[in-house]
Write a structure and sequence with these properties.
- With about 325 residues, this protein is an alpha/beta fold.
- The chain is built from eight helices and ten strands.
- Strands 1-2-4-3-7-8-9-10 form an eight-stranded mixed β-sheet, sandwiched between helices. A two-stranded antiparallel sheet has the order 5-6.
- Helix 1 (about 75-90) crosses helix 8 (about 295-315).
- The longest helix has 21 residues, at about 295-315.
- It is globular.
- Residues about 45-60, about 105-125 and about 130-160 have low confidence and may be disordered.
- This is Dienelactone hydrolase domain-containing protein.
- It comes from Cadophora malorum.
- It holds the Pfam family DLH.
């Protein structure tokens, strides 16, 4: 990809914000901020017992949805509304972790004096022993006592023209960085919900690749991806017999053009996976999480992609 940072990966790019009241909350999973939307029905926890924010309230749940976002992350209202909707329709908890773990960095030894919720300046600290791992939450770093992660404020390269801007961002979130982060979330899921819990994965853009990777590793049981990006055919080839993946694609998508989508379908067929692929005309990359709902074609596509995902999980999860 060439040019400036793609809008799907740039949280400063304009996005239609859907209407609705979010009902989830943000909890901390081993230093990873995670939006959780809980199942609608009460559980068997004894009355008067209140779980801490680091614990889920549905330890007896038989299934859970892992929601992996596109570049705007877990604080995009649309993503939170989608997570709430999945929790309501599927009556199970939905966990949406911050795969990007912030990204801003302060120099070692600096004590923050910013008001709660404030964003802090970006400072390149090349002397940080974890410089190449910056963007990870503190617990994932080798020398966490001298490396701190704080709320995100876009660094200078974020708005830089040219391909370097995108490559700088993408390099910070390759599998070598993102896989260990998601491994902590998976450990939390099994510890909280039990080893036999079935995990459904819903991924948008960037998150779609990691739904595929986790399915290929046998961690996610059933998957749905919406206009997935940056995945490889080697990753698709790890989806085999007994695995189910639904894919919702845009008619116009420079990240996943028709040729790559068709190749993805061919590879899944050759590997014996159970799959479904749907393309919506009149849509562009990002429609299912950042679509302009005032456009009928986009609104209907977004709604059908959501309903289709719900039915896919009901059928297979």
């Amino acid at each position: 990809m060439t040019g400036a940072l793609h809008p799907c990966c740039d949280p400063t790019s304009p996005s239609p914000i859907w209407e609705g009241n979010r009902r989830g909350e943000v909890i901390n999973i081993d230093g990873i901020e995670t939006y959780i939307s809980r199942a609608a029905k009460p559980t068997s926890k004894s009355a008067g017992t209140q779980a801490s924010h680091s614990e889920a309230d549905t330890s007896n749940s038989k299934r859970i949805i892992l929601f992996l976002t596109e570049g705007h992350g877990i604080y995009l209202p649309n993503a939170q509304l989608l997570a709430d909707s999945f929790a309501s329709h599927l009556n199970c908890d939905v966990l949406m972790p911050d795969q990007f773990a912030g990204q801003s960095r302060l120099p070692k030894g600096i004590k923050p004096s910013f008001p709660p919720g404030a964003k802090v300046p970006w400072i390149e600290d090349e002397n940080d022993p974890n410089y190449e791992l910056r963007g990870l939450a503190t617990p994932l770093q080798d020398k966490f006592e001298t490396s701190d992660a704080y709320p995100f404020l876009k660094p200078p390269w974020w708005v830089q023209e040219g391909p370097k801007a995108f490559e700088e961002w993408k390099m910070r979130h390759e599998p070598a960085v993102t896989d260990p982060l998601l491994a902590l979330v998976i450990m939390y899921i099994h510890k909280t919900y039990g080893e036999n819990v079935r995990i459904g994965g819903i991924g948008y853009c960037f998150g779609g690749r990691y739904v595929m990777r986790l399915m290929g590793a046998g961690i996610i049981d059933v998957g749905v991806v919406n206009h997935p990006s940056f995945f490889t055919m080697e990753e698709v080839a790890k989806l085999g017999k007994g695995q189910q993946l639904a894919m919702y694609a845009a008619e116009t998508d420079d990240i996943m053009p028709p040729e790559k989508r068709r190749q993805t379908e061919d590879v899944m067929t050759s590997m014996g996976a159970t799959w479904m692929s749907t393309v919506f005309s009149g849509t562009e990359h990002g429609f299912s999480v950042r679509g302009d709902l005032s456009v009928k074609e986009v609104r209907l596509a977004k709604e059908r992609a959501f309903k289709g995902a719900v039915e896919w999980f009901k059928d297979w999860l």
